[in-house]
Amino acid sequence: MYKIFRLFLFLLISSSSFAQWQMVSNGLWPDNSNQFLRQIKAICNYNGTLFVANTYGHLAKSSDDGANWITFSPPGFPTDTYINSLATLNNRLFFGALSTGSFYGIYYTEDNGATVVEANNGIPVSSTIVCLAVKDSKVYAGGLSFYVSSDQGNSWVTKANGLPTFLFGVNVIAFDDAGAIYIGSNNRKIYKSTNEGDDWTQLGTNGLPTSGSGVGALIYSNGALIVSVGADGIFTSSDDGANWTASTGITATNHKPANDFITVGLNVIAASAGGGAFISSDNGSSWSVYNEGATSGLLCFTLKDNFIFAGGNGKGVFKRENTAVSIYDENLNEMKFELSQNYPNPFNPNTKIKYTVSNRQYGTLKVYDVLGNEISILVNEVKEPGEYEVEFNAGNLSSGVYLYHLSINGLTQTRKMLLMK
């Protein structure tokens, strides 16, 4: 049996200054006597501008990757806006608001926050919106119920068939590769819909905590569901929620809890209010600390260009270069195949990828974006021993970092390439 160890090395493209988290909070609200004035509850990349909302709903934006921030309050917004979630679709940035009297529900801007439009057609009066999500030109919102908009937020439909009357709130929304929707609720339950939310089914709870706080974060990754339940830890399921297993490396003691997940290439990163950041390369089964440079816990993530941005639990915003590359080692020649760096790299729009197979094997070579979305399948067949070369055309893609992933007999190699147009 070959001894193969997966080492995840986080390499730099240009400067070592971003080999760890860097605080980028210039211009954000000062701490003064309340450290939570800079606790970032939501962060979003809207047409190249970063937007954040803090604990009290105060808003700020940055057009220079967080180097400088401008705080603002859109016309018509009260001073206690309590924005708790952000999402973007096409040219609209959506704000999810906690109910504060006459101010509630969902709003959007199309001009970088200069003006904001109320978008509560179909949203019950005084509804609190806890989470927002976008997929396939639809906007999804969660609060005391589940809402869907098929016209960019102009109107909303409540979809709660199969959900309990006392749901106690939808905390998070996730999607799988087949288009199913998952929601995590404040009653510690997870529900699934395969028809755009028209009908819901509760997933199993075997292995999940039976008491305590609700679901704080939820994500689907390569066939597995990963969920954070209050301060009890992270749990995974590979059988669509029938059974759950507690993750290792991240516990009630050090994660307190995980508030957000994000997929970066083939990895999942967790934002921890008390522990900072953790990273998993096995779909959430085990976690390693990913905190270098983070001086506080983290609450939320977004991606922009080649960086991961995180909202901090009391220290503003943090930034880290997104350069996760999986490399397999301990005698690479024992792997019976090898993936070479593409050339040219950077490239525009064509590049070539070489790989070597030592014996007759079935394999796949796929290209992904940094969010883990499959872009192209370059190879999907049995190969005889030898060296192979394939060409990848990125003419229809935007500039940025992409990953190519060679998988043979359960073993894999992944490298990154940079498209510059």
Describe this structure in words.
By secondary structure, the chain is mostly beta strands. The protein folds into 2 domains: 14-324, YVTN repeat-like/Quinoprotein amine dehydrogenase (Methylamine Dehydrogenase, Chain H, 7 Propeller); 331-419, Immunoglobulin-like, CATH 2.60.40.1930. 0% of the residues lie in helices and 49% in strands. The protein has a 4-stranded antiparallel β-sheet with strand order 2-29-28-27, with no helix packed on it. The chain is globular, with a radius of gyration of 22 Å. The model is unreliable at 1-18 and 324-335 (pLDDT under 50).
Specify the number of helices. 0
Beta-strand content bin: over 45%
Q: What's the CATH superfamily of the largest domain, by name?
A: YVTN repeat-like/Quinoprotein amine dehydrogenase
Distance between the termini: 44 Å
Helix content: under 10%
Rg (CA only): 22 Å
Number of strand elements: 37
Instruction: Tell me about the largest β-sheet.
Output: 4 strands, antiparallel
Class by alpha and beta content: mainly beta
How many independent structural domains? 2
Tell me which CATH architecture of the largest domain applies here.
7 Propeller
Low-pLDDT segments, ≥5 res: 1-18, 324-335
**Largest sheet: spatial strand order:** 2-29-28-27
